[in-house]
Description:
Blueprint: E1 8-11, E2 21-26, E3 39-44, E4 47-52, H1 68-77, E5 82-91, E6 101-102, E7 106-110, H2 137-147, E8 152-153, E9 157-161, H3 169-177, E10 182-184, H4 187-196, E11 200-209, H5 225-249
Parallel strand pairs: 1-4, 1-5, 5-11, 6-8, 7-9, 9-10
Antiparallel strand pairs: 2-3, 3-4, 5-10, 6-11
Helix pairs in contact: 2-5
Amino acid sequence: MLNEHAEIGVFGGSGFYSLLDTIKEVVIETPYGPPSDAFAIGEVAGRRVAFLPRHGKDHRYPPHMINYRANLWAMRELGVTRIIGPCAAGSLDAACAPGHFVVADQLVDRTNARKDTFYDGPITTHVSFADPYCPQLRPVAVQACKDVGVTTHESGTIVTIQGPRFSTRAESQWYAGTGWQVINMTQYPEAYLARELEMCYVNISLITDYDVGLDGEAGIEPVTHAGVIEIFDKNNARVRDAILKIIERMPAERTCSCGSALLGARIGH
């Protein structure tokens, strides 16, 4: 049993460290191998928070190489029941401009061969994922994002691609044509694994680019890594401020169904 405990977990970049008071680093071993890095545990607004940079402190793990199962398992070992998962993301919709936030309500998986379940048998388990993001936390996140002065889209579908490459024009046009708004490389299986462990999960997508550009719009170039970093760095403080407000306002009691996701999900049990 771990000596350290936290109730809220945060995945994200190193800029979040400045929010934590009295940081203690904790190394956790899991049955699925090592997490992306040591956890930083501290307090925010009087609540115990565990933070993990999903790519590692030095960004050593590209999206398709992150050990998502280890990351989520370790969060649960710490006692975490709710997770905030901010991410950099591209836009597939002209209305979602760079610098905007999208609090996603739906997810499409376009990854392949990722280790995306804790239930490989012998107990067959089918967990509902109809609504991927916690319905109790999403309104809290929406209001927090608005209150830090960011143009915030209250819903949106995020398609997760395998990476590390960006999309072709044909792929991006296909995704946009379906009506999806956001594209990213890390939301799946991170959000789903949280559900399998009966933890709440909420996303804030920071829009950094227009993916391959927008048809008919001059001067909008396809996404580059350098461009993503530039926009993310400019808005990182606002992401931190929004996360702080979410933690401050998070209700003490869970009233959603995330905590009972396994109820009725197991065949013969």
